[in-house]
Amino acid sequence: SILNSSNIMECFTSIFDISIKVPTAITIGKFDGIHKGHHLLTSEILSKKASGLSSCLITFKNSPRIVLSKDITPSLFTNKEKEYILEQKGIQYLITCPFDKKFMEIDAVKFVEILCNNLNMKYLVVGEDFSFGYKRSGNINLLRKLSKNYGFELKVIEKIKKDNQYISSTLIREELIKGEIENVNDMLGYEYFILCEVFHYTKNKMGIPTLYIIPPKNKLIPKFGIYITTVHDNGKKYKGITKIGKNILDIEDCKLTEDDIGIETYMLDCVNVGDHLFGKVVKLSFVQLLDDKMKFCSYIES
């Protein structure tokens, strides 16, 4: 599986009913798109391993953006994809909390008490705009006071900019919808990708292996068009040309409707590798948008 990793990450679904005995370095956030700003946070907690602290990241199962703002734009990464990214980084503990009434109504001071008592927090790193607790009553100033009372070190990271704009998941979503995949990749610090199951495999008339993929429903898909892509399978990489669109999968017994999004990928630098990918989860990463109008076959035949 693409999710296989040499790192072992323990996963939890609540901060209330767990007990981590080892001292931890913690960061907290929505982590919708794990971008360069988030890399600064994760690098900080990972760097504390040398001081004997285990890295712990707290995020959410469901996006606060959807709950609070009724913004139904799909997320950049599914929970499974976020888990994959963080495990590759070497995070030791991942806590994915439901963003529900119980979580939203935690008193700010009580929240910090839980982190110290349940998670053995000795170090906390957050972004400069971090807020927490009931009605966002907690802020950086409160954290500075509580760090002295509860005996943990606090570090605040400044937000970073690209072209005079703060890098954010919102900005990345906007760029992805426009097809600006190279800008997206620059802000992420890696290529935007989809973890997806290959539900059909064939070869086209020229004998080029072709993968057919249905993306997850809750995943933000790049602008419809034709992309240079890479197919990753257990450490191996294959160059691809990928088409994203509606009603493009002309496959017998395919249950897609005309409104469903389909993904078709031609694997250009291999002959027989595709057949063993049928039914497997692969990582499809996006390198560059070639065209949002030109016919797919013109790229394959040229």
Instruction: Profile the largest sheet.
Output: 6 strands, parallel
Terminal CA distance reads 33 Å
- What percent of the residues sit in helical stretches (DSSP H or I)? 25-40%
Give the spatial strand order of the biggest sheet. Answer: 1-4-3-2-5-6
- Beta-sheet strand percentage? 25-35%
Unreliably modeled segments: 298-302
| Overall mean confidence score, pLDDT | 88
Over all CA atoms, what is the radius of gyration?
21 Å
DSSP strand count: 14
Gross geometry = elongated
Structural class: alpha/beta
Instruction: List SSEs in N-to-C order.
Output: EEHEHHEHHEHEEEHHEEEEEEH
Number of helices: 9
Q: How does the SSE layout of this entry go?
A:
Blueprint: E1 10-12, E2 24-28, H1 36-47, E3 54-60, H2 64-69, H3 79-89, E4 93-97, H4 101-104, H5 108-119, E5 121-127, H6 140-150, E6 153-157, E7 161-162, E8 165-166, H7 169-177, H8 181-188, E9 193-203, E10 209-213, E11 225-233, E12 236-246, E13 261-267, E14 281-291, H9 296-301
Parallel strand pairs: 1-4, 2-3, 2-5, 3-4, 5-6
Antiparallel strand pairs: 7-8, 9-10, 9-14, 10-13, 11-12, 11-14, 12-13
Helix pairs in contact: 5-6, 7-8
